From TrEMBL:
It holds the Pfam family Monooxy_af470-like. Residues 1-21 are annotated as: Disordered. This is Uncharacterized protein DUF4188. It comes from Humibacillus xanthopallidus. InterPro entries: Monooxy_af470.
Length: 186
């Protein structure tokens, strides 16, 4: 026997995550029309019995994220240069953790990665040194997407700011959703 079907759907959640009136159910999009970059980075533990090799890789990412968010906050206060990092989120799946990051440009990603004064450079150096000792114990990967102006879109319904909406802010002007289709057709 199946459960009875409710006669009415509950009110959608508000930005704080609690149910509200139907008026809160509005369409939103991210508030940015220019170019941007999306960076995906992840790791996979291939030899779980070797935490001496994969745990340091897993532990390096929080240091880099702390540095990126601190630099973003310092820039917002006018105390530091803009690294171009906007926001990110961590996803956990069967293949290991994946971080989705939003940046102003691919050039900003490459500048951060190659800056010897930043956390990324020593973390990569340590990873390569460990990999030579025990090849294949842990895998890392990344993908960089340079997205031109007008070639991105988003739609958020009854959602707190997330993804591009969290990185750039949201707007109720959802006309920009057409941009990606227009760029693909051109």
């Amino acid at each position: 026997m199946s459960a009875p079907i409710p006669s009415a759907l509950p009110a959608p959640p508000t930005q704080s995550g609690t149910p509200s009136s139907a008026a809160a159910f509005q369409r939103q999009s991210h508030d940015h029309d220019g170019a941007l970059a999306v960076f995906l980075i992840g790791m996979r533990v291939n030899q779980p019995w070797r935490p001496d090799l994969w745990a340091p890789v897993f532990g390096a990412m929080p240091r880099m994220l702390t540095e990126l968010y601190a630099a973003k906050a310092a820039h917002a206060r006018g105390e530091a240069a803009d690294l171009g990092f906007l926001d990110g989120r961590t996803l956990i799946g069967a293949g290991g953790p994946t971080l989705v990051q939003y940046w102003r440009s691919a050039e900003d990603i490459y500048a951060y990665a190659s800056d010897r004064a930043r956390e990324h450079h020593p973390a990569m150096r340590e990873f390569y040194a460990r990999s030579r000792r025990a090849s294949g114990a842990v895998g890392i990967w990344h993908e960089t997407f340079a997205v031109p102006a007008g070639a991105h879109e988003s739609l958020y319904l009854a959602m707190p700011p997330t993804g591009l909406g969290k990185a750039f802010g949201v707007t109720s002007d959802v006309r920009r959703r057409r941009h990606a289709r227009l760029a693909a057709a051109g």
